[in-house]
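Re: folding output
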Amino acid sequence: MTKTEEFQELRPMLFSIAYRILGSVSEAEDAVQETWLRYQATSTRPGSVKAFLSTVVTRISIDVLRSARVRREEYAGPWLPEPLLTDPYEDPARSAELADSLSMAALLLLERLTPLERAVFVLREVFAFGFPEIASAVGRSEAACHQLAVRARRHMDAGRARFEADRKERDALAERFFDAFREGDVDALTELLAADVSMIGDSGGKAPRFQPVILGAEHVARVLAVFVPLVIRGAGVVEPRRVNGQPGAIFRDRDGHVLSTWALDVLDGRLQTIHTVNNPDKLGHIGPMADAWVALREARQAHRPTA
């Protein structure tokens, strides 16, 4: 196989590793591209192309994450991962781990880890790399990687999200939720909310938003009561999709341009968390972007009663 063929075969895995370390589609794509450039520049053939490329993309991702953490601490409002609609890497033997590690809740837990802990956790727990491979990838001894893995697993288990509802149950509830949304049935929406539901929005200061974090069924219901008519009357489109492996939707304007994504966490037959990403910088990979301010103004005008 040529270098190009070898790289393209491993590219889905490399992106999936980088995305889980970085929580950013654009940064993961850049890390993969840089990995390719470095592979192209090598004059000798590595004994294991997979090990070599995994090491390169991991080290690049760790370096990027270290600088990104500073920017995320200064971010305007809550920071959420860039939504991913489809994971390009598939491994039937690791399907549960791959899906679990992709959710918004899991990626936010990973934000609590140090860059090294995060990389070790991703390589070990998600992709089942051996410790010799991990040690090579992160530039630490195997003993140190064992310790990093233990600490990372302890942090993840301590904060593990409770959202482990059966997939069919989650999908059925999400279908009811978005059906009610499109029908403008706020009462039906409210019935699906857990008492302690939270709605977390990431606009990055670049798009309209309600409060950054809204807690409790009563408060979330009030937001939905305002937001639903704006979408319906403004001829917006609610497109149910899996977002980060969870039931969710893409919200589009009347021309089909992207406004935001929603991802739903479900527990005990109720919505526990709604993660909304509205920052246009995080949505460009999904499709052409709408001007959210224009869409909001048009929706309000359409909703305004006529004399």
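--- second protein (sequence, then structure) ---
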Amino acid sequence: MTVTLDRLRVGSAPDSWGVWFPDDPQQVPWQRFLDEVAASGYEWIELGPYGYLPVDPARLADEVGRRGLRVSAGTVFTALHRGPAVWEETWAHVRRVAELTRAMGAEHVVVIPSFWRDDRTAREIEPPELTAGQWRHLASGMERLGRELRDGYGLDIVVHPHADTHIDTEEHVGRFLDATDPDLVGLCLDTGHYAYCGGDSVKLIETYGERIGYLHLKQVDPEVLADVRAHGTPFGPAVRQGVMCEPPRGVPALEPVLAAAQKLGVDMFAIVEQDMYPCPPEQPMPIAVRTRRYLRGCGA
């Protein structure tokens, strides 16, 4: 029997159209993304990398509104483990995203920690493990970010564990959550990234459910993932290898994840993402249509 997932608001994001950067000739134009995401049956979208969609609030509101779309969140990348010295530069970027996010009526900012491997070249740019001092900087910096966005913009931050960042595995996610104030810092659970890094999404929801304020729905191909792990392949090349796949072909199974999120009893966005940068321009929409149909079959 299909469970009714009436607390989950399903959407998609530029990432599902192969968009990783504000401007890149390998990416589809933003107009095509908006046209196709609406035609695929989604109502909610994320802003994606700042500058990909128009940053003028009036123009963006018109563009999304006339397609029947609404914005669920903005996204920022941060390197707060580097300490107070990076705060001003970080805040300058976050503030622009926050202003546009609030203007679009959204209430969340998805915060992605900086990569320790370059996402274009795969070159290692920092050690993969943080020192105790860097963990303290990361926790206090995220709390400050959460407080500033809550008090200044009425927005909640949801931190996104991500492959090739310092918040990735079950151990690191638990350490981060235990070190941060629940009133200031929530979690965006990306089911694909968490599986990529060896985590169990259902277990995380059942253990830290009160911290999870947002979902990214994604699956990984277990055979490709095994090869990625065997060869130590960085995340960018792994995506080009096809490590992220169309549901329900991969792991984790999404039905138990959705059911566990529904049991939390709170309204929550569940935004579909399928990393596939770069990809042919005709590839994303058929996948998006099939994925939306699949999620409806799950009750969402």
